[in-house]
Amino acid sequence: MSDNSPMGCTWQHYLEHLTDAHGGWTALTHTLMRRAGPWVGLPVDPGTVERGLRRLKSRGNASGGQYGRWLLHYFGVPRPLEDTARWMGQYHGRFADLPLSLREAQLWLWDRPPIAESPAACWIHLGLASVALRRRDRQDARLRLAHAADTTRVALAAQVEFTLLEARLETDGGQAVHADEALARARAQIARLPPGGERDCYHARWADQRAYRLIHAGPQPRLLPAARLYRSINVQSPAAFALFRRDHGLAYCHWRLGDRDRAIHHARAAVEHAGDAGLLRFRVMALQLLAHVEPREARGLHSRADRIITELEHTDLIPGTRD
Predict the structure, then answer these.
(1) Nearest-5° angle of CA 129, CA 250, CA 274?
(2) Is residue 77 helix, strand or coil?
(3) What is the per-residue burial (b if ≥16 Cβ within 10 Å, else e) of 104-140?
(4) CA 182/CA 173 separation, integer angstroms
(5) 220: left (phi over 0), alpha (psi -120 to 50) or beta
(6) Euclidean distance between CA atoms 6 and 218, whole angstroms
(7) Cα separation of 267 and 270, whole Å?
(8) Cis preceding-peptide flag for 114 (omega within 30 of 0)
(9) How many CB atoms lie within 10 A of CB 294?
(10) Are 214 and 202 in contact (CB under 8 A)?
(11) For every one of its 323 residues, what pLDDT tens digit does the chain have, with 9 covering 90 and above?
């Protein structure tokens, strides 16, 4: 684990961010009293308020009580902590590349106050829903999505994350109509995101899910429309994840269409993009696909993939299964 690893968030950690941002305990106290006004029940004595805030610092991950509610209401979650929660909740980030047990343990550390009592909790619920989907535990995934439902309204990206996970859950459960409805909502939400790498990643995930539905919806896979979806991913994207999804999907479609040369080209590109993104789980997927497309190299490619799986303890990565 690096120095920037999550390792949980306590009230002390939360308050350190607030006091640093506002210039100390006294300044934080007066800012809280000014923002709250005289109508919410705060003590009128600044010294009493400051002592209440200092007591909150020692509460660890216990409920923050009234002072915790006041701080979260009038200050929210400091940007660095909110960004960390978001990073932990997004499927296409490097946090999702951690071994599943480690990822789950880290999310559980953040599934506590103060984060659990804030709108940022939606990202933790979404991360745990993604973990449950990887474990093929649809009941737990549905429960976590239900917990996230009320808080995803605060951020458009969280809405997109929620809807894509919902679509995946419905697809895995055989609910084709509901999956298509969710994907239609996700497409509209993605269109509202600002241009850039994040929107490219979400579009790539949407396109991949739509293509998966086309390829597996019936006895005759619809490979050409699926390939068009993968080509709709921005080939100039700054996000290596989006480029991986594009080339990995095109490699599969061309392989199934019998165009081996183009399949090999895209499969090799997918391996490189996954490596550029630092996403070794997806690099394993790309190596496994390339082994199918280029059987002359299959032994060496499978060996490389197996080494990555062993090193990262990705025991949930089974060749030939969907991630």
Answers:
(1) 55
(2) coil
(3) bebbebbbbbbbbbbbbbbbbbbbbbbbbbbeeeeee
(4) 13
(5) beta
(6) 43
(7) 5
(8) yes
(9) 17
(10) no
(11) 344 445 689 999 999 999 999 999 999 999 999 999 988 999 999 999 999 999 999 999 999 999 999 999 999 999 999 999 999 999 999 999 888 888 999 999 999 999 999 999 999 999 999 999 999 999 999 999 999 987 656 689 999 999 999 999 999 998 999 999 999 999 999 999 999 999 999 999 999 999 999 998 777 889 999 999 999 999 999 999 999 999 999 999 999 999 999 999 999 999 999 999 999 999 999 999 999 999 999 999 999 999 988 877 654 544 334 56
Q: What tokens were used for 5?
A: 């690893």
Residue where the block lists tokens 């209440």: 52
Structure tokens at 217: 């919806």
Among 210, 278, 295, 211, smallest CA distance to 244 is for 278
Dist CA 304 CA 254 (whole Å): 23
CA-wise closest residue to 323 among 222, 252, 224: 252
> Residue 117: which of 84, 147, 162, 161 has the closest Cα?
147
Contact between 284 and 268 (Cβ < 8 Å): no
